[in-house]
Amino acid sequence: MQPEPRRAVLVLEDGSVFEGTAFGAAADAIGEVVFSTGMTGYQEILSDPSFRGQIVVLTYPLVGNYGINPEDVESRELQLNALIVHELCREPSNWRSNRSLDKHLRAAEIPAVSGVDTRALTKHIRQAGALMGAISCERGPAELLARLKLNPNYSAIDFVKVVSCAEPYVWEESRGKRHRVALVDFGVKYNLLRVLSQAGCEVTVHPCDSSAKDILATQPEGVVLSPGPGNPALLDYAIESTRALIHAKPTLGVCLGHQLIGLALGASTYKLKFGHRGANHPVLEEATGVVRVTSQNHGFALDRAGLAEAGATVSHRNLNDGTVEGLRHRELPLLSIQFHPEASPGPNDSLNIVRQFVELLEAA
Amino acid sequence: MSDGMKVLIIGSGPIVIGQAAEFDYAGTQACRSLREEGITTVLVNSNPATIMTDPDVADVVYLEPLTVSFLEKIIQRERPDGLLPTLGGQTGLNLALELAEHGVLERYGVKLLGTSLDTIRKAEDRELFKRLLLEMGEPVPDSLSVENVDDAARFVERCGLPIIIRPAFTLGGTGGGVVRTQAQLSTMVQAGLDASPIHQVLVEKYLQGWKELEYEVMRDAGDTCITICNMENIDPMGVHTGDSIVVAPSQTLTDKEHQMLRSSALRIIRALGIEGGCNVQFALDPASFNYYVIEVNPRVSRSSALASKATGYPIARVAAKIAIGKRLHEIPNAVTKETTAAFEPALDYCVVKIPRWPFDKFPGGDRSIGTQMKATGEVMAIDRRFEAALQKAVRSLEIGGRSLLWREPGWDLPKMIGQSNDLRLWAIFAALRDGMALEEVHQLSGIDPWFLRAFQRLVQAEEAISAGGSLLEAKQLGFPDAVIGELTGKSAESVRSERERLGIRPVYKMVDTCAAEFEARTPYFYSTYDHENEALPTTGPAAVVLGSGPIRIGQGIEFDYCSVHSAWALSEAGCASIMVNSNPETVSTDFDSSQRLYFEPLDDESVLDILANEEPATRQAELGAQHSVQVVCQFGGQTAINLAEAVERAHYRIAGSQTTAIDLAEDREKFGQLLRELSIPQPPGATATTVQRALDVAASVGYPVLVRPSYVLGGRAMEIIYNDTQLRQYLTLAIAVSPSRPVLVDQYVEGTEVEVDLICDGTEVLIPGIMEHIERAGVHSGDSMAAFPPLHLTADHVARIVDFSTRMALGLGIRGLLNIQYVVRGEEVLVIEANPRSSRTVPFLSKVTEVPMVRLATLVSLGRTLAGLGCGTGLLPPPPFAAIKAPVFSMSKLLGVDAYLGPEMKSTGEVMGIDWTVQGAIAKAFKAAGVDLPERGAVLASIADRDKDAALDTLARLDRMGYRLFATSGTARFLAAHGIAVEAVRRIGEGSPDVVDAITTGQVQAIINTMQGGGPMKDGFEIRRAAVEARIPCLTSLDTAREFVTSLEGPPLRDLGVAPLTEYTRRHLGTGHDREGQAVMGGGGGH
To answer: pTM score > 0.90 for this model?
Structure first.
């Protein structure tokens, strides 16, 4: 019943090679190789648009245990370019599961590799930084390396346009809720829409390249700038609309949305060595001294330098590496955070941010 | 803020089932953690076998009974600013509550640190806790206390079946059970009501087949909350988590389910206002998002020790700092050294824990597993695959080399799978091998199919291996060489050579708390068959310390104490210490107890793999024949010493006593020969390999005889035999127990037993002290009370003991420790046995003599001399105080186990009493061990005929002191005839009320019961079990009874003083004790 195992190879741009067994779709893939340290939540990761363009390595070694269910879906399709695991579970066990991870990936035509020493690979990425990589069952390392050299680098590609919605729409379950909110979709996870809805917001989702004028014409009480994949500095159109939106309405920026706010205020972003991806990142709220464990998924960060000049103060700090995790502005009613209050996967410890946003709307 | 503060820490006392070595680990971490903050720590514990009671762990150490009145005396004397209640298990927590309730804390201005009294009460009181959870909207299982069947029926109408019945105030679940049908309801509730002394039962919704999950959470005073780890019990609801096979992290939960329970755990810790660690247990419906909160422990627990070792996150250390007001993000992360303690560990491996049950010692005990914990200890294993972690954990159990292939003919598999017991895992494997459908196993056991499929994959892999399948794949699934050999008809050694030939060897990966996201320097490793090896050989001189594995009867925490001290001594000597152990509860498996920790099974395969990793063949070639890595086998009990042979065969260097010395001491023939050559007497006896030969030996030495298999641990299968019939009976049993091993038949010498632990460097011998047992020979030394200094030995006895010990140590070729047991009868001193390793008494003796015995033995093993270390030799002079070691039992947890003391060890732990007088020390030891008698109490005597004369004086003294005496008919007649006022009670079967009723109704508060020579007295077993269930002392040796009565005659306990351990011992040294003694002390520490 099990398909004959196919050998697969992962080649990194620095020439290192990792071998394993292919599963999922029989296809080649190229992408930025990143690792995520969450121990649960592979299903949500698959459909998280912020993983677009990436080959994701899961550090937890047993993957697929609880299968795939019809509910834990974060966008309209599977997003990542490929998945790499230590061990694939082919016989899942969970009451909601209706298919295996392998089938799910095959149906979505996404290739994957198991049997890789993912810890060794993770250490390599930690030391070398995020690297471009290619996987294949057919091609040898030399050929893959040559192809990698021709492929544009992850940081030079605008993935937001690929993952954003084409037309504006209202998130169905939020219809009729008290506060009308416009969300700009740079690659939103459904769960952000769900938690906004649960907090009393009727959410209209706008494509990433909508102009501020068009968005404001719908007369929202507030604006949410969503998370999304890739390098924020590439997104001139989004920076421009963000600048207008934050001056017009109370704004919540999450992850990429937060970086765009920083850029719009005149600060700059930089690429982290290997990013933050996982469900255990400690973030200190400077005002209260409370630390929250947060869900994170980003490869770029806001540079602390220049924020003060832009009128912003750092409201949250990452305890692992001191990076900026949140901003407040001297005058503007904005909440800007690098981590994911909507979790999914990850801890639900930061839903207070969503409540604070609603309070901002109510105060306005 | 906290600098200069003085904090009292209460330990958890003796090791008992449910409270084991995990609190030594917790207390030790807490003391260190607080001292780092400039706090003076005062530690109280009655258990001398712990690291935490070492003079250099806390600033001030008291080895005094853990009672409110003794603690009050200590508080009065020390005047601590604060009390840390949450690191000494349930014992420490209860005492803190009692101290508060008695007004002691208020009286002396002692602040409860961390979690408040109110919080502790809320979490501990079932009703308060239930109310709090309901107010929060957290689901709790429906339950109701009822006093009649009708109320129970109404409960069922409301909540449905099945329900579980828990009678109030009965032990071991007597009268309880699961009601599945309406028809069973009234009879079962009635039975429960009848079993309860207060005629009350708790009826509770039975969550059959629900998953059981645990969350270890922490909170600081700033309201930061984090989860350290979650764990999934493979055994579903109904099995105590301490008796469940557990995996970490959870395997079958989606992120949604995990986050739901995690959030609930955090809401609970916030609502309770806990400052420190907390354990929350949940039941989760396997087919919906419904869950219930089952239990909360507002303290460091066994589960948090497991979580610490499973993740590398030092929970107790951090909890202690939180208790003094530190915030999580102000506490540095001990693993990465760069980040803080405010984070949640990410695991990139799978952890399996299996409990270690004592049924190998108690084959007659009730092996069923339920809500009452029965395991004495546990093992943990780490690997990148679940199957491999499981098989490694099984290897770590040390159950006679039994692998998952083990099965016994006659096992009723469906029954064993349906009703949980210690053999269920093996029964499931056997059933799967027999072709039982996975669905059926799931229906019977309730175990999640995910785990069962993993078991099935292993069974399928067994077939593949037998058919010549891939060796690498077998190793990746965790099959031990021995099992692969068994499946392919080869020896483990030849599988190993094949592996070596093919280059199949494990790599070692680091436990770093962060799944490799950050650079970590934790020297904490586990093996796996993967690609990259992270444990590069240690540079410079290094020695591997073999630990002692899971805590079990006969091999307790004492050996962990010894292993840790050996690691410290190695470091002090400039030799990198490499620890190998599989026990998550212990100090030895803290990654900072040694320079490197391999969390691995203690068997030939893993030890040789570790040695090969530390010293690869290439390096061996460079170094020539002489390996540089040494192996220390003396301190991990019988576990470690048993590995010496394999180590030597692989040409590694053993530090200290060589296998020749071990063999000479353990092989009774050779040992007897040596004693004859040295003209040292031993009880007459010989080895027998047949029944006839044994009968001949018995005839020549005369009955009673002491018989045992030749290699023994904890007196296993040892018995005193009084006649031929018994001997024949025993031999069939004993030979069944160990077919290839001969049986020793010795004359049973009923004298005073004496024990010596010594250190020998090859030319000189240091004897820190001699201990005399209270109970005569025949009671296992581990179950005996021991007195230091000895009570009744003459100068001539002592001289002879010193002479014999010295010559024996030299004759055996000991380098390191030697333990010798003697029996003294009249003028005679006879040798019973010698153990060429650390013994159970080493921690006790080290503490009371202040001789760092393990340190000296380790340094001597490395080639130093006693003279070079500045030590004296010979016997050190006796001190001016008395110290008594007393055993502690866990009988109330083990249904069906007889509580009488004999040659087979039964105790799980020990306590110590120390005082300026012998009587005071004995009184404290009894008190600490929970052997107690209220003033004006009543004592029941049931004495075997041959002991009656000997018992007379003791019972007469009780009578004179005004205690009421009850006795069974024969004993009553005997006492009456000697003019002692006694009330006769009926034997069992003579109508009620009978002797058992007298016990269960609380008429008597202590029992003295001896056994008819050789066979249990008719009612004896029932009497002893009743005493155990009623939790009253039952003394089965007249020697214990005599000392107990003597202690009652002494000054009342309230008149006894308390003093720090060093006050006793230093005064000892201050009284002109030899200068070498000072030098011995001076070198301590180094860690």
So the answer is: yes
- Alpha helices by DSSP H, listed for B278-437, are 302-311, 315-323, 386-396, 413-418, 424-433
Chain B residues whose beta carbon lies within 8 Å of the beta carbon of residue A293: 226-227, 343-344
Interface test with B, best of A84, A291, A340 (most B CBs within 10 A): A291
Give alpha helix (H) positions in B789-899: 795-812, 842-849, 853-861
Give CA–CA dist A193/B839, Å, rounded.
Answer: 65
Q: Which residue of B has its CA nearest to A34?
A: B517
Q: Confirm if A284 and A319 have CB atoms less than 8 A apart.
A: yes
> Confidence band (pLDDT; 50, 70, 90) for B934?
confident
Give CA–CA dist B105/B86, Å, rounded.
Answer: 15
Q: Determine which helix (DSSP H) or strand (DSSP E) holds A316, and give its type and residue range.
A: strand A312-318
Helix B795-812 to helix B659-666 angle (10° resolution) is: 130
Q: Of A259-263, B30-34, B626-630, B869-873, give the lowest mean pLDDT range.
A: B626-630
CB A10 within 8 A of CB A135: yes
> Shortest CB distance from A95 goes to which of B287, B350, B385?
B287
For residue B621, name the pLDDT band (cuts at 50, 70, 90): low
- For chain B positions 441-480, those within 8 Å of chain A (CB to CB) are 448-450, 453
DSSP-derived secondary structure letter, B840: T
CA-based end-to-end distance of chain A: 61
Alpha carbons within 13 A on the beta-carbon side of A18: 30
Record: contact B350-A61, CB cut-off 8 A: yes
The count of C-alpha atoms lying within 13 angstroms of the C-alpha of B560, restricted to the half-sphere facing its C-beta, is 33
Q: Of B854, B867, B912, B881, nearest to B1084 (Cα)?
A: B854
ipTM summary value? 0.98
Residue type, B579: M
Quickly count: other Cβ atoms within 10 Å of residue A288's Cβ.
11
Question: Each residue of B734-756: b (16+ CB within 10 Å) or e?
Answer: bbeebeeebbbbbbbbebbbbbb
Q: What is the pLDDT of residue A32?
A: 98
A286 touches chain B (CB under 8 A): no
Is the Cβ of A38 closer than 8 Å to some Cβ of chain B? Answer: yes
Tokens found for residue A88: 């694939």
Q: How far apart are CA B907 and CA B1010, in angstroms?
A: 18
Please say if A329 is a catalytic residue. no
pLDDT band, residue B166 (cuts 50/70/90): confident
CB within 8 Å: B450 and A93: yes
Q: Pull the structure tokens for residue B830.
A: 């006879």
Looking at residue B2, its pLDDT comes to 61
Which string of DSSP letters, residue by residue, matches A16-81? Answer: -EEEEEEEESS--EEEEEEEE--SS-HHHHHT-GGGBTEEEEESSSEESTT-B-SS---SSS--BS
Angle at B253 (CA atoms; ends B248, B254), nearest 5 degrees: 130
Specify whether A342 is catalytic.
yes
Q: In this complex, do A37 and B348 lie within 8 Å of one another by their Cβ atoms? A: yes
CA neighbor of B451 nearest in space, from B286, B288, B289, B228: B286
Model confidence pLDDT, tens digit, residues B78-121: 999 999 999 888 899 999 999 999 999 999 999 999 888 899 88
d(CA B909, CA B926): 13
Of A65, A86, A282, the CB nearest to B342: A282
Least confident of A303-307, B762-766, B1063-1067: B1063-1067
* Contact yes or no for A59 and B222 at CB 8 A: no
pLDDT of residue B192: 85
Kindly write down the DSSP assignment for every residue of B109-164, as one continuous string.
TPEEPSS-HHHHHHHHSHHHHHHHHHHHT-----EEEESSHHHHHHHHHHH-S-EE
Q: What whole-number distance in Å separates Cα of residue B483 and Cα of residue A255? A: 52
Query: Virtual CA dihedral for B971, B976, B982, B988, nearest 10 degrees?
Result: 30
Alpha carbon distance B195, B74 (integer Å): 41
